[in-house]
């Protein structure tokens, strides 16, 4: 059912508020941004702002959800390889590129800075990205069923592979020690991570014991 003009206007206004709050939270910090400042930037009153969000905390959670909600262009599904190792490289590079966009990096910095005062940020962040990890775990499970990977917990394998991709590079980027790597640099990192991952997770063919070999020779 198509939206009515009133609902469409309300959705546009809500999106405008979230976008303004996001920019201000990322630039000035959550603690140093007030609802009055957001209302002034919006060009309206605090009453208008509170008609959409009951508190600054609720508005922040909306910003988190807006940033981490998957977008159609996050992954180029038309370029997704069929062979698992090539798929690993594709998935790893695309995931790292996604989490090192300006908004994603800013959100990670904000979540870390407010973790003690407002742990719901981290929880909302984690819950929002969990479906993407669950989706990826199905590919890992299929690789285990096909004998490409050894038996393990698929979701844990996803976490470990992405940690190999990110490593200290992501931490240095978050800490502003270095700029985000280029797409080619992330692809190189994902290829190296895939090699290390497969060394540990590749299914091994059972080896015939020396005793059995000698018995056959006799």
Task: Explain the overall architecture.
By secondary structure, this protein is mainly alpha-helical. The chain folds into two domains: 5-62, Arc Repressor Mutant, subunit A (Orthogonal Bundle); 77-201, Tetracycline Repressor, domain 2 (Orthogonal Bundle). It has helices at 5-28, 35-42, 46-52, 56-68, 84-99, 102-113, 120-145, 154-174, 183-201, 210-217. Helix 1 crosses helix 4, helix 4 (56-68) packs parallel to helix 7 (120-145) and helix 5 (84-99) packs across helix 9.
Quick recap:
With 218 residues, this protein is an all-alpha fold. 71% of the residues lie in helices and 0% in strands.
Q: What descriptors fit this protein?
A:
single chain, 218 residues, mainly alpha, Arc Repressor Mutant, subunit A, Tetracycline Repressor, domain 2, 2 domains, 10 helices, 0% strand, elongated
């Amino acid at each position: 059912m198509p939206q009515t003009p009133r609902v469409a206007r309300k959705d546009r206004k809500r999106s405008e508020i979230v976008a303004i709050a996001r920019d201000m939270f990322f630039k000035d910090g959550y603690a140093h941004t007030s609802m009055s400042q957001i209302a002034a930037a919006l060009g309206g009153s605090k009453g208008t702002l509170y008609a959409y969000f009951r508190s600054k905390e609720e508005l922040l959670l909306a910003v988190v959800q807006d940033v981490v909600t998957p977008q159609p262009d996050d992954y180029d599904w038309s370029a997704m390889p069929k062979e698992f190792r090539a798929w690993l490289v594709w998935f790893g590079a695309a995931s790292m590129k996604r989490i090192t966009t300006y908004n994603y990096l800013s959100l990670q910095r904000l979540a870390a800075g407010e973790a003690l005062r407002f742990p719901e940020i981290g929880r909302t962040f984690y819950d929002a990205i969990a479906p993407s990890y669950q989706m990826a775990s199905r590919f890992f499970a299929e690789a285990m069923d096909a004998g490409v990977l050894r038996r393990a917990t698929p979701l844990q394998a996803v976490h470990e592979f992405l940690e190999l991709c990110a490593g200290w590079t992501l931490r240095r980027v978050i800490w502003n020690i270095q700029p985000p790597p280029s797409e080619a640099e992330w692809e190189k990192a994902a290829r190296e991570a895939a090699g290390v991952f497969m060394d540990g997770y590749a299914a091994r063919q059972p080896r015939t014991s020396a005793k059995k070999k000698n018995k056959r020779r006799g």
